């Protein structure tokens, strides 16, 4: 928009003049009103009072100027302005301000008369018009011009909608009246001056007080007096600012003032709109001040006046920020301009008015597009832009000088750039750069939009062309650059005779040039494309600047391909202008980072490569010459006719003194390499110490016309147990052949292993030599065997090609991958080669296995299962089946599922003071022969050696893995260790399982008396004497053997771990400790007697016992040796012993005197502190008869017991009888359960007694 008058293209805002405040200069320099709108009718508004100065005045002026909206975005979003206000244009002036004249000066008597004519008497009544009206003789558009930018400047800069004066309001009791009178006088004088000017400008006064109303109560009365004397409205014409206001309060005050002034400004421009509409509605042309006498006598037509009034109405609508109304009036103006009887059709194309009308049409179209963007109508704005371009092209082709000249392309470029600038000034939210998001209140993260969708006015299903959508500014700047390039091409086609300056050309040639070329907003041909030696228009800078602006827009949205394309266009423009240094600065980063290489757009890659190569030759950059020569050798890129690519001599034309010898390092991932390197192993697996055939294939993809390339060396780097393989160039080491040197061949090589040169370099490397000269389209294959010294995975990871000449060094590396095609193995020899596909996924990776071991490992005494807690001795036998003697060590690990290990001891080290772990001291033993582990020593060929480990089985059933690894080497090759591993399963099971019966017994000892004093005996802290209630219990253990063979039980015992509840316990066995055999699945019983006694009579808690059963046993098959015996511990559930409640114990035994008579004693115990009474009721039964009380009451003292006997005579034999004695505790009203003792059963009915056939009782 720089080519157009600023007043034409700027967005119009209401003008407010701030007078008499501060000393800050204006925001922009504006010409004096007499230079723009001359005339004697100008009105000067002045005041005798000094301006308000000071810090507060400057701060207040800054706040007002901050409300200026000249730099605000061109959109109607409320968020762009504080409080939803419209934009304003503010001018800060002093006390003097001049309003332009309303009417032009009357013409002089000499105007319109020729020299020598008689003097005419002045006409007293002239019809005067505006100084810039087509009707005034002094106007620049008199008599037939439509519009001038001066009219817009008049209303934007010189005629304010509001004139705001600032005065100091002091409070001095002695001078208040004088000061108030001065204010009244000044305010009335300024109002009178404004009324005299015939402008409708509103007048506003702001008083800055030095005291508050609280400090000077008479301020309100003084203000009321001033209002009455001046007629100012207190709501929107008179404002009062108290002193001591903060910056925030000043900002709030300014906002309130602007809010009050906004209706006044809108009403002012609405009045101007009504006045222009009334003049348009008259339908007649006003008479001019004087008839035109110079030039053409044609006056402005009705269509011209219609365009003028519509432009005024649209501009006033913009002042009011009513952009929809402005757009409507601008549309009417354009229709009138391009109509059949419009201004363009009635104006000659050679006339200056033609260019003025084109300038006005461009301005109206620009403002129309801006209005549509303001109203968020993106697609409509684009269509307006397209329709106007089509109309203008048609007009220029019909009535102008055509569109096939540089003037039209300049207009196309300018019109596209205007669209980009309008989009940038509009700051549409759809084109905001959202990465990174700076707004913390953003709800959604979206990608940066490239174009705006159509507005709702267009149906959803309507098909629109892509160019009908509003794209971001970079798109339009690219269009502008394209047209600027075509403008340069057309300018360069101008004949030399038309490029001669007018002073050096004949008049006919100048006339022909004026009628041929369009000069609208462009220089003449001799400036557009000057002859050599003359200065003219800089097309290159114009194109590159536009491209750079477009690049920034595309780059911000991540459109990297377009960034690269535009950068290339900018470089081509520099090259065309022979500015090679600037082109080189663009092309080198583009060449390094362009995406076209990966996407295989070879035409663009070739274009960039050749352009960079040309620039490098001009700027003498040897490194760039080498890299571009290397890439341009590739046949996928285009070549130039007459240029033979030769990498080896590309720098021979440069002097070595000035540039030295550069070293160029490239990566095949970043450039298009003319040579490719492939590596392959012949097999997917190999063994240590065995030769493995390998291949390196170098293929040339260079142009057939290019020179061969001689490599200095080829390097293949590996990951694994080998470092690298290197081939050096040596033509003397090449085998003689009869085939041509340019033919593909397979060369057999023998590599030499290179010893490490330092301690850090532990991996071996292989080196060989051959002729490394590669011709175009040639494949050279080098086949050689490789030996590996260690086992593991080996992968070829990277290849490096080096070219070394007298002038430069080149290093090109590339990653070796198998992605894509299957690996290839080249077969054949010097006569010819052909590829053979390998039937596997990767040819660059191989698994090196250890040398196959021939040592055997056996476990001669391994059993299927073992038992917990037993001591084991396991023999390990190794058998050397190698062809020669070996030195070996053993490594043993016992691994469980829970990742725990078992400790073991080598039998040969059994005398050592501490046990040996599998990793403890083996390293020390094996260090004698350089191998880690338990030293076995030298083993002769076909010899056997046995080693024994001893360990104890775990205490819990579990599974373990026994891992035995023999690590050895043959004596002839100590550097290659060989290993053999044997894994055996060790299953440990529990040999026994047990169940338990806990049976009450009657304690034979009398209970302690509650009424006797207990003697604790001598005091001994280490001994505990119990004097409480005693109870006897029987624990019967039933042991079952789960072993698969017979075992021998030596002994059993109870281990008492804890006694809970304030008691002591004594355990005694009820069996003899003799060896007893137990067969598999056999069940045996052992009984233990438990004596429980409370510590004292006051102990009322229940007791509990924590115990375990220990069984000492051995295998029956083993020798009688105490060391072979194992002790297994079985857990016993916690045994609870109630002792604080009454209980009933039943004891039955046969009568010694009467056959088949059974004595049944019921012992009632009262361990409580209460006197209890029990009711006994023996129920009759058909199974037996009894003697004893049927019903009875039994009284028990506290801490006492008593027995009741019944004689039972069974009526059955060989069966269980169930005497049912019902015992009820009267005190607690509780029925006691009868507990059976040894030899009795208990069910839900009561205790049961077994009656033998012969009579008496027995156990069953």
From TrEMBL:
Trafficking protein particle complex subunit domain boundaries: 353-634
What are the boundaries of the region Disordered?
Answer: 97-122, 277-301, 734-766
InterPro entries, from UniProt?
Gryzun, TPC11
Regions of compositional bias (Low complexity) in chain numbering? 112-122
Mind telling me which residue stretches traverse the membrane in this protein?
Answer: none
Q: Which residues form the Gryzun putative trafficking through Golgi domain?
A: 664-1252
Q: Where is the composition biased (Polar residues)?
A: 734-759
Per its record, how is this protein called by name?
A: Trafficking protein particle complex subunit 11
Which species is the source of this protein?
Glonium stellatum
């Amino acid at each position: 928009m720089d080519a157009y008058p600023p007043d034409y293209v700027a967005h119009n805002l209401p003008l407010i003049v701030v007078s008499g405040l501060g000393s800050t200069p204006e925001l922009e320099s504006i010409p004096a009103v007499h230079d723009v709108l001359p005339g004697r009718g100008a009105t000067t508004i002045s005041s005798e009072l000094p301006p308000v100065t000071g810090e507060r005045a400057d701060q207040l002026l800054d706040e007002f100027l901050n409300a200026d909206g000249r730099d605000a975005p061109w959109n109607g979003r409320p968020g762009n302005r504080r409080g939803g206000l419209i934009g304003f244009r503010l001018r800060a002036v002093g006390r003097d301000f001049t309003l332009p004249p309303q009417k032009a000066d009357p013409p002089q008597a000499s105007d319109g008369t020729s020299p020598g004519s008689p003097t005419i008497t002045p006409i007293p009544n002239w019809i005067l018009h505006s100084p810039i009206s087509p009707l005034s003789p002094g106007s620049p558009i008199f008599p037939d011009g439509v519009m001038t930018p001066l009219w817009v400047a008049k209303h934007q800069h010189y005629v304010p909608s509001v004139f705001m004066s600032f005065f100091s309001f002091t409070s001095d009791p002695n001078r208040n009246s004088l000061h108030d009178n001065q204010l009244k006088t000044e305010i009335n004088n300024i109002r009178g001056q404004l009324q005299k000017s015939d402008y409708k400008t509103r007048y506003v006064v702001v008083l800055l007080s030095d005291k508050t109303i609280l400090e000077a109560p008479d301020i309100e009365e003084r203000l009321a007096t001033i209002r009455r004397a001046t007629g100012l409205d207190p709501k929107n014409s008179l404002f009062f600012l108290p002193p001591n206001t903060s910056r925030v309060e000043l900002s709030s005050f300014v906002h309130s003032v602007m809010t009050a002034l906004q209706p006044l400004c809108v009403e002012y421009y609405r009045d101007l709109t009504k006045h222009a509409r009334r003049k348009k509605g008259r339908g007649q042309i006003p008479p001019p001040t004087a008839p035109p006498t110079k030039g053409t006598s044609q006056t402005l037509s009705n269509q011209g006046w219609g365009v003028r009034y519509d432009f005024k109405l649209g501009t006033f609508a913009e002042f009011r920020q009513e952009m929809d109304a402005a757009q409507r009036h601008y549309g009417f103006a354009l229709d009138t301009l391009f109509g059949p009887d419009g201004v363009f059709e009635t104006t000659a194309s050679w006339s200056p008015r033609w260019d003025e009308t084109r300038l006005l049409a461009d301005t109206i179209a620009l403002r129309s597009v801006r209005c549509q963007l303001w109203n968020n109508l993106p697609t409509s704005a684009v269509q307006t832009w397209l329709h106007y371009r089509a109309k203008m092209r048609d007009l220029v082709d019909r009535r102008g000088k055509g569109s096939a000249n540089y003037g039209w392309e300049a207009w196309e470029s300018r019109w596209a750039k205007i669209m980009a600038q309008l989009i940038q000034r509009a700051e549409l939210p759809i084109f905001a750069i959202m990465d990174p998001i700076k707004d913390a209140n953003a709800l959604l993260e979206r990608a940066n939009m490239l174009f705006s969708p159509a507005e709702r006015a267009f149906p959803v299903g309507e098909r629109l062309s892509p160019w009908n959508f509003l794209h971001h500014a970079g798109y339009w700047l690219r269009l502008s650059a394209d047209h600027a390039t075509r403008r340069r091409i057309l300018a360069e086609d101008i004949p030399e005779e038309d490029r001669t300056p007018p002073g050096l050309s004949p008049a006919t040639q100048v006339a022909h040039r004026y009628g041929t070329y369009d000069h609208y907003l462009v220089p003449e041909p001799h400036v557009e494309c000057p002859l050599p030696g003359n200065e003219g228009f800089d097309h290159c800078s114009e194109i590159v600047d536009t491209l750079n602006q477009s690049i920034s827009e595309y780059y911000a949205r991540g459109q990297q391909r377009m960034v690269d394309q535009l950068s290339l266009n900018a470089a081509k423009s520099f090259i065309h202008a022979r500015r090679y240094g600037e082109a080189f600065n663009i092309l080198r980063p583009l060449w390094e980072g362009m995406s076209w290489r990966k996407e295989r757009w070879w035409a663009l890659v070739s274009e960039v490569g050749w352009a960079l190569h040309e620039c490098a030759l001009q700027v003498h950059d040897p490194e760039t010459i080498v890299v571009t020569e290397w890439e341009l050798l590739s046949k996928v890129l285009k070549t130039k006719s007459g240029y033979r690519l030769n990498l080896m001599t590309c720098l021979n034309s440069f002097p070595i003194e000035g540039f030295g010898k550069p070293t160029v390092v490239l990566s095949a991932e970043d450039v298009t390499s003319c040579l490719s390197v492939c590596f392959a192993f012949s097999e997917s697996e190999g063994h240590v110490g065995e030769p493995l055939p390998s291949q390196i294939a170098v293929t040339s993809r260079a142009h057939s016309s290019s020179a061969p390339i001689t490599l200095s060396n080829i390097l293949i780097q590996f990951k694994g147990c080998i470092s690298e393989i290197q081939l050096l160039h040596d033509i003397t080491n090449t085998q003689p052949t009869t085939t041509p040197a340019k033919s593909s061949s397979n060369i057999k090589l023998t590599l030499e292993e290179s010893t490490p040169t330092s301690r850090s370099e532990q991996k071996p490397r292989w080196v060989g030599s051959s002729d490394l000269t590669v011709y175009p389209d040639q494949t050279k294959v080098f086949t050689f065997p490789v030996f590996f010294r260690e086992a593991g995975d080996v992968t070829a990871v990277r290849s490096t090609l080096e070219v070394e000449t007298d002038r430069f060094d080149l290093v090109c590396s590339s990653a070796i991958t198998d992605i894509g095609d299957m690996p290839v193995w080249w077969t054949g020899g010097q006569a010819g080669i052909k590829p053979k596909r390998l039937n596997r996924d990767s040819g660059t990776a191989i698994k090196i296995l250890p040398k196959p071991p021939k040592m055997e490992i056996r476990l001669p005494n391994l059993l299927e299962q073992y038992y917990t807690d037993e001591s084991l001795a396991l023999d390990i036998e190794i058998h050397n089946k190698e062809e020669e003697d070996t030195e070996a060590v053993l490594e043993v690990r016992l691994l469980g599922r829970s990742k725990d290990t078992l400790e073991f001891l080598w039998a040969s080290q059994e005398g050592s003071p501490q046990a040996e772990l599998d990793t403890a001291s083996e390293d020390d033993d094996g260090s004698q022969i350089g191998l880690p582990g338990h030293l076995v020593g030298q083993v002769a060929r076909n010899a056997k050696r046995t080693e024994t480990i001893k360990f104890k089985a775990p205490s819990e059933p579990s599974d373990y893995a026994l891992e035995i690894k023999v690590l050895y080497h043959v004596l002839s090759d100590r550097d290659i260790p060989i290993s053999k591993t044997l894994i055996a399963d060790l299953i440990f099971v529990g040999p026994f399982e047990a169940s338990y019966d806990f049976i009450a017994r009657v304690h034979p000892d009398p209970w302690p008396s509650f009424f006797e004093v207990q003697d604790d005996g001598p005091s001994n802290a280490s001994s505990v004497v119990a004097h409480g209630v005693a109870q006897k219990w029987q624990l019967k253990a039933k042991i079952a053997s789960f072993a698969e063979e017979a075992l021998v039980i030596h002994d059993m015992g109870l281990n008492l771990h804890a006694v809970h509840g304030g008691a002591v316990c004594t355990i005694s066995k009820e069996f003899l400790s003799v060896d007893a055999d137990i067969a598999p699945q056999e069940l045996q019983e052992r009984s233990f007697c438990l004596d429980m006694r409370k510590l004292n009579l006051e102990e009322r808690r229940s007791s509990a016992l924590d115990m375990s059963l220990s069984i000492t046993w051995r295998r029956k098959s083993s020798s009688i040796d105490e060391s072979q015996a194992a002790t297994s511990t079985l857990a016993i559930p916690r045994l609870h012993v109630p002792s604080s409640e009454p209980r009933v114990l039943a004891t039955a035994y046969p009568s010694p005197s009467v056959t088949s008579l059974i004595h049944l004693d019921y012992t009632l115990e009262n361990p409580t502190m209460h006197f209890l009474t029990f009711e006994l009721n023996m129920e009759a039964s058909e199974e037996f008869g009894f003697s004893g009380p049927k019903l009875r009451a039994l009284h028990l003292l506290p801490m006492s017991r008593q027995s009741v006997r019944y004689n039972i005579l069974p009526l059955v034999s060989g069966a269980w009888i169930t005497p049912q004695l019902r015992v009820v505790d009267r005190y607690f009203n509780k029925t006691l359960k009868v507990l059976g003792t040894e030899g009795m059963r208990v069910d839900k009915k009561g205790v049961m007694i077994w009656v033998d056939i012969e009579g008496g009782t027995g156990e069953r």
